[in-house]
Design brief:
The longest helix is centred in the middle third of the chain and has 44 residues. It is built from 9 helices and 12 strands. The protein folds into 3 domains: about 110 residues, PAS domain (Beta-Lactamase, 2-Layer Sandwich), CATH 3.30.450.20; about 80 residues, no CATH class; about 160 residues, Histidine kinase-like ATPase, C-terminal domain (Heat Shock Protein 90, 2-Layer Sandwich), CATH 3.30.565.10. It is of the alpha+beta class. Strand 9 and strand 10 form a beta hairpin. The strands form 3 sheets. A 5-stranded antiparallel sheet has the order 2-1-5-4-3, with helices on both faces. It starts with a helix and ends in an 11-residue tail after the last strand. InterPro entries: BphY/WalK/GraS-like, HATPase_C_sf, HATPase_dom, His_kinase_dom, HisK_dim/P_dom, HisK_dim/P_sf, PAS-like_dom_sf, PAS_4. This is histidine kinase. GO terms for molecular function: phosphorelay response regulator activity; phosphorelay sensor kinase activity; protein kinase activator activity. It catalyses: ATP + protein L-histidine = ADP + protein N-phospho-L-histidine.
């Protein structure tokens, strides 16, 4: 059993601020870290006072109210930001828990953890992420014009009767055109997601998902015909989604299944079910499948794992970002055999299921 001396030694070397108060918020105990928050001349008088006598009246009132809340509810948690007597800005996460002594008296245990460094890192990450997102938007915007020029120039060459081309030139032009158009679509998707992330509100409207599937099919018609792909879509619901982003999500998932085909014609199945309190959509293909070690890495930008048949490596990364903007999750089903199955889970709040005719 710990002696009071050992307990005191432990507490005085604990970097957390530990204190105990009575029912009137009078400090009965404060460890060294807690006392060192106060000017040296005040430390001897903290025990036996509220410790708030030198605080601005409004701040002291807020802290006392938090004590009363902890006594009433049994516990509380709050983050405070303030400047200490040395002029340092400190962010503290304080957890308080009420308890009764053996004599039946109310007490409040408080433990404050200094999260200043963590808070600064989080703020820095937010700034960096915002800068990266804005850079992505600018880069995507600037790439659209040259890509359009490339496609236009290739079309001129292809249809110019005075241009003499070798026997394989037409095939190369078709390939270059398809690649440029695919990149343009990815750039457009990247720009759409970047813009959406900087909007206060994503424009959610009731949308027939069957219509979005047909629009995605139309956009991919050349690729579908070229690869002799078969697309099967079950009846899908009407949900509140951002139509442009959700169309791009469906299109990317279909294209992902086609591009990563095996040595047979691609078969893509789009299915829906209501799983408990979630809407669940899945896109299945009969392609090369996904190795277990690649399942999560596929969602990183420019990563394709072992599925490296075309594409920019942005598709699934963009898909996850779109689903995240809708409050959902997206993952590869590790148990699926015979290809790949991507599962999209969306919150029930996106709408009551309304099944439209396919």
């Amino acid at each position: 059993m710990l002696t009071s001396e050992v307990f005191g030694l432990i507490m005085d070397h604990d970097p957390n601020l530990v204190f105990i108060k009575d029912a009137n918020s009078i400090v009965l105990y404060a460890n060294r870290a807690c006392l060192e928050c106060y000017p040296p001349e005040r430390r001897a008088s903290i025990v036996g006072s509220t410790g708030l006598e030198d605080f601005p009246r409004e701040e002291a009132a807020l802290r006392l109210a938090e004590d009363r809340r902890a006594f009433a509810l049994g516990e509380s948690e709050a983050t405070t930001t303030g400047v200490d007597y040395l002029g340092r800005c400190r962010v503290l996460l304080t957890r308080k828990r009420a308890f009764m002594t053996a004599d039946g008296e109310q007490r409040l245990l408080g433990i404050s953890t200094d999260i200043t460094e963590l808070s600064e890192r989080e703020a820095s990450l937010v700034r960096i992420n915002d800068q990266l997102s804005r850079f992505t938007a600018f880069a995507a915007h600037d790439l659209r014009s040259p890509l359009a020029s490339i496609v236009s120039a290739l079309n001129v060459i292809r249809h110019d009767r005075q241009t003499k081309l070798g026997p394989n030139a037409s095939d190369y032009i078709e390939l270059a055109t398809a690649s440029a158009m695919s990149m343009a679509q990815q750039v457009t998707a990247l720009l759409s997601v970047s813009r959406a992330e900087h909007r206060q509100d994503v424009r959610m409207v009731e949308t027939d998902l069957n219509v979005l599937v047909e629009e995605a099919r139309s956009n991919l018609s050349a690729l579908i015909a070229q690869t002799e792909s078969y697309i099967l879509a079950s009846r899908l619901p009407t949900l509140r989604v951002e139509p442009d982003l959700f169309r791009q999500l469906i299109q990317n998932l279909i294209e992902n299944g086609i591009r990563h085909r095996a040595d047979r014609a691609p078969q893509i199945a789009i299915r829906y079910e209501q799983a408990g309190s979630e809407h669940m959509l899945s896109v299945e293909d009969n392609g090369t499948g996904v190795a277990a070690q690649d399942a999560e890495r596929l969602f990183q930008p420019f990563e394709q794992g072992s599925r490296t048949k075309g594409g920019s490596g942005l598709g699934l990364s963009l898909c996850r970002r779109v689903v995240s903007l809708h409050g959902g999750s997206l993952a590869v089903d590790p148990t699926y055999v015979g290809g790949c199955r991507v599962v999209v889970r969306l919150p029930e709040a996106l709408g009551t299921v309304s099944m439209a005719a396919a």
